[in-house]
Amino acid sequence: MPCFQALCLAVVNISKHILSIMQEGADFTVEEAGGRTTVTITGPMRVSTIGDIDSLLREIEEPVQFVDISQVAPIDTIGAWIIYRFACDKGAEVLGASEQAEILLDAVEESTSSADIQPPRDMLWIRVALSAGDTVFDLFEGAKRNIGFLGAILAAIWRTICHPSRLRGKALVRQMELVGVTALPIVGLMSFLIGIVIAQQGAVQLKQFGAEALTVNLVGRITLRELGVLMTAIMVAGRSGSAFAAQIGTMKLTEEIDAMRTIGVSAVEALVLPRLAAACIMMPLLGFYSSCVAIIGGAVISDLTLGIPFLTFLSRIQEVVPVYDFWVGMVKAPVFGMIIALSGCYQGMQVKGNAEEVGLRTTKAVVMAIFMVIVLDAFFAVFFTEIGWA
Amino acid sequence: MSEHDQDLDHDPDFPIVIEGVTNAFGDNVVHDELDLKVKKGEILGVVGGSGTGKSVLMRSIIGLQRPRTGSIQVFGKDIVAAEPDEVIGVRNRWGVLFQGGALFSTLTVAENVEVPLKQFYPDLEQQLLDEIARYKVVMTGLPADAASKYPSELSGGMKKRAGLARALALDPELLFLDEPTAGLDPIGAAKFDELTRELTDTMGLTVFLITHDLDTLYAICDRVAVLADKKVIAVGTIPELLESDHPWIQEYFNGPRARAALASKERGNELDKSSEGNA
User: What is the ipTM of this complex?
Assistant: First the structure.
C-alpha cells in the first residue's frame, strides 16, 4: 500500500508540473463584439514559451480587426515578430502594447524582408551541362598548370646543376629523414607480414603440385620485382605524399610562399626540389629494405610451417633469384618516388582559398599518386618481360 | 559593492558572478583568484594586454574551459560545478560571437541562424524559423539577400554580423562578443559599435565585450574591466579608471591612441549637441 500511495503522489506531482508548464505558456482568445473581432494574446511571448501559438494563429480564418497584447509580458523579438506578422496578415491594429513591446515591434518591423533562405538553384539539366563544361575547362587548365609546374621544376633542376651551391642540403637531409628513416618501422612491419602471407598462402597452393620448395622462388622473386617496391610506394604516398601536399598547402594559405617569392626565394627550389630529391633517393633504399624484410618474413614462416630451415631459405634465394629481378625493382623505385613527390607538391601548390581546400588537395595527391604508381607498374611489368628480364 | 556579497545565488542584478577563478595551462597561470561581477543591462568592456587571458575568461564563463578552482555563476547557476544537463537552461539564455564569426561553412547565413533555434526548440515550424532567420539577418544590418549566401561569400565585416545574428537567434539576455571590431575598417567598426548599442537597448541585453579597440570602449561601454597581473585589477567607468595609478592602466588610457579616441568621442558629442541645438 505505501508503494501505491507513493505512486499516486508521483502522478499528482507530475500533473501539477504539467499544469504549471501549461500556465507558463502564451495563449490567446478570439472575441467578437459588434461585428469586430479582437484576438487577445496573453502570457509570456518568448521563444521558450510560445509553444504552438504561431501555427494556431495562422489557422484563424476570419478577419481580425484588433490584436490586444496588453496582457503580454514578458516579450522578446520572436514573440514580437509573431504578433507583428499576424497583425500584418490580417491588417489588424495592435492595441495595448507595453513600452518594451512597442520597441520590439518597431525593431522587427524595420527588419522585415522577403529574401530567399536558400541560394537560387538552376534547373537540373542546366546544372549537368554546367558541371560538364566546368570539368572540361578544368581539364585544360589543369593540363596547363601541370606543364607549367613541370617546367618550373626542370628550370630549378637546371639552375641547381649549374650552381650546385643552390641545393638546399639541410632541407634535403631533413626530408630524407622524414620520408625514409622515420618510415622504417612501419614499412618493415608491413613487409614482414606480407612475406609471411605470400609464403604461407603460396605454400598451400604449391603443395597441390608437391612443389613446396618453390615457395622460395615465389617469395624471393615477387618481393624483389614487384611487391617490395609497390607496397613501399603506396606506404610512402600515404605518409609523405600527403604530408607534402598538406605542408605546402598550409604554407600557401598562410602566405609563406608569397613571402618567399617577395624575398626572392624560389618556392620550387626551396620546397619542391628537396622533397622530390628525397623521395627519389629514399624510395629505392626503402624498396630494397622492404624486399629484404619480406624475404625474412617468408623465411621465418617457412622455417616454422614448411620445415625449410631459415638459413637454407636464404641461401636458396641467392640461387633462384636472378640479379635482374633486383634491378627491376631498383629501376622502378625512384620513378615511383618522383611520381609521389610531384603529385604531393603539385597539389600543395594548387591550394588557395580556405582550409577545406588543403584537405581536398591532400586526398587528391594521395589518390593520384597511388593510381599513377599502379598504372606505371603495369607498364614496367610488360616492358621488363619484353626485354627478356622475365 | 560589499552590500551585494550576501545571497549572490539569487541576485538578479548580476547575471555573471566570477569568484576566485584560477586558470592555468601546465605551469602557465593565466588567472589567479580572479573576481568579476557583470551588472544586468550593462555593456562591460574587458581589456588587457595580449596574453592576459581575456578570451580564456570568456571561454571559462561559457563552459568551454574548465577553471582549476573557483566558481562562475551565470544566472545563479554554477557553470563549473554543474552537470552538462543542468547548464542547458542557461545556455539558451546567452549568445556568443566568436572572433572570426565561427559560422558553419556548409550552411547559408539563414540556416546558421536557425541552428540554435532548431537545437533548443525543435517544435518550431519551418515557416516560422525562416521568418525569424530573415528578420534577424536584417536586424543585424546585413542586406536581406545575404540570408541565402554561404559564409565564404561574405566579407569579414559581414561574417561578424552574420555571427551576431546567430548569437542573437534565441533572443538571449546575455551576449558575449570576442573582439567584434577586430579586422574591421574604422567605418565598419563604428557601425558595428552602433549596432551593438542599439540592439542592447532594444533587446535589454547584458554584454560581455572583449576588445582592443579604444574607440569601442569610449563609444559604447558602460564599464570597463581591466585584466592584468592575472586578475581583474580594476572595474569602472573610464573616468574612474583614469584615477587609478596602476602603470598599465595609465599607459593604456593615456597613450596617444587613447587620447585620439577620447578626442573623437568628444567631437562626436559636440556634433550631437550642435545638431540638437539646430533642431
Answer: 0.79
